Amino acid sequence: MSPFILLVDANEVSDVYVHLLEQAGYQVANARHMSEGRNYAADSPINMLLLNNRDEQADAYGMIRILRQSHSHVPLFVLTSSDDENHIVSCFEQGAHDVMAHPFSHKVFLARVANLLRIFGIVHDAAGAIKAGDLHIDHASRMVNRGGESWN
C-alpha cells in the first residue's frame, strides 16, 4: 500500500497536486474546505497532511494547530502563496514540518514530500511496500512484518 496523503485545498489548482502525487504512487484525498479536512483527518488513517494555503486564510494557522494536536505523529507540509518570512516562520511555529512558497518546481515538491515521509519513518517503495517504524507492509507479496513477527 502506498502512503496516504490528505490534501486540504479549496483551490482549483489542487487537481494538479492530486495528479502529481498519484503519478508518484501516493494515495491522495482532497478536502476542499478546512472543516472537511478536519473531519477527514479525524476519521481516516493518514500518513501526511498537505495544506495548500494560497489565500493566507486566517483559519489556516488554526488548522495547522488542530491538525498538529490530533496528528502529532504525521508530517504536516504547508504550501503557501506568501514568501514573507514572518508568515513562513508563523507556519513553523504553529507546527508545520515544512513550508514551501508558490511558485515551485514539481520535482522539488515531490522530493520534499518523499523526504518528510522518510524522516517520519514512512518509506514509499515503488514496488508497493511501505515502512513505518518496525512495521513493514509488502503489498506485492501480501506480507506484513512487525517487530520481527510476520503475517500473510
Helix content: 25-40%
| Largest sheet report | 5 strands, parallel
Which ranges are low-confidence, i.e. pLDDT below 50, for 5 or more consecutive residues?
none
Q: Provide the spatial order of strands within the biggest beta sheet.
A: 2-1-3-4-5
Please write the string of helix (H) and strand (E) elements: EHEHEHEHEHEEEEE
Specify the number of helices.
5
What global shape is seen? globular
Question: On the 0-100 scale, what is the average pLDDT?
Answer: 82
Return Rg in Å: 16 Å
**Terminal Cα span:** 14 Å
The count of β-strands is 10
Report strand %: 25-35%
Q: Look at the helices and sheets and give the structural class.
A: alpha/beta
What does this structure look like?
The protein is α/β, with parallel strands linked by helices. Helices cover 37% and strands 28% of the residues. The strands form two sheets. The chain has a five-stranded parallel beta sheet with strand order 2-1-3-4-5, sandwiched between helices. A five-stranded antiparallel beta sheet has the order 6-7-8-9-10. The chain is globular and about 50 Å long.
